[in-house]
Structures are given as structure tokens and as C-alpha cells.
Amino acid sequence: MTTRHATCSCGQLRITAAGEPVRISMCHCLECQRRTGAVISNQARFRREEITVTGNATEWTRTAESGNVLTYSFCPVCGSTVYWENSGFPDMIAVAIGTFADPNFPPPTISVWEECRHPWIPSPCDPATKPIVKQG
Asked: What are the residues whose beta carbons fall under 8 Å from the beta carbon of 103, sequence distance 6 or more?
């Protein structure tokens, strides 16, 4: 079984993921752009029972266009968003791919909110990557 470790920038908030991600995706929506400060957000969803959280997190909640409630957990010390939960996928925890700090992490296979993608960001190289219009 694969075990991966993710941390915030200061190391106070940590995730251990025991198992393979169920879904790896990228989101181009404007809300994710604002939340991350980047033009794209990348996530790996794991089964809830495969995730162990260590450290303290501060939460911020918003309602997506889909009506799903998203709860983001970030480090109260350094501010890094490490993981989040989506009421539309109650058995999953999404972890920000960058928090694994692993250049060999598997690539996304799903791209959502393509209509908000900046034109200078290329489409995924892998033709197997599925664009999905809107999902939250």
C-alpha cells in the first residue's frame, strides 16, 4: 500500500494518506483561483478512512455554484490550505497536490471549469484527461 505525507509550509498541519487517490483533478474556477492565489487548483481525493490529520486547522466554508458546501482546512500559523471536504462527496477528503511536495505525484485525469481556464494555460497533455464543465 502506498503511503503519502502532505504538510503545510511550516509543518504544523500534516496529512498521512494511506492508499491511492480515487480522483486527481485540476480546477480552473474563479473561486479556486481566489482561494489559492494561483490560476489553477490541483487536488487528489482520498477515501476519508485513508486520511489521518495531525495538527491544528482553521476552517473556512463556502457554498459552491452546485449547492455543495465546501469546507477548507488551512494552517492557522502559515495559512497553507492543506485539505478540504465537499458535501457532494461526503466519503472523500481532497488534499492539495502541492502539499505532498512530490514531483512524481500522478497527474490530474480530470479538468473542471475549463471555461474559466486562462488562455495561456495549456490544456492537459494527456488525451485521457476529461474536461468537465462545472462541478463543485
From this structure: none
Nearest Cα to 94, choosing from 39, 38, 53, 128?
53
Which residues, at least 6 apart from 53, have a Cβ–Cβ distance to it below 8 Å?
Answer: 13, 14, 15, 73, 83
The upper half-sphere exposure of residue 2, i.e. CA atoms within 13 Å in the direction of its Cβ, equals 9
HSE-up of residue 32 (Cα within 13 Å, Cβ side): 25
Q: Which CATH class is domain 3-132?
A: mainly beta
Q: Are 109 and 19 in contact (CB under 8 A)?
A: no
* Residue pLDDT, tens place only, 50-62: 999 999 999 999 9
Contact 25, 36 (CB under 8 A): no
Residue 20, CA atoms < 13 Å, CB-side half-sphere: 5
| Strand-pair partners of 62 | 70
Kindly tell me if the per-residue pLDDT of 17 is higher than 80. Answer: yes
Q: How confident is the model at residue 89 (pLDDT cuts 50, 70, 90)?
A: very high
* Domain regions of the chain by residue span: 3-132
**Is the predicted pLDDT of residue 104 greater than 90, yes or no?**
yes
- pTM metric for this prediction: 0.87
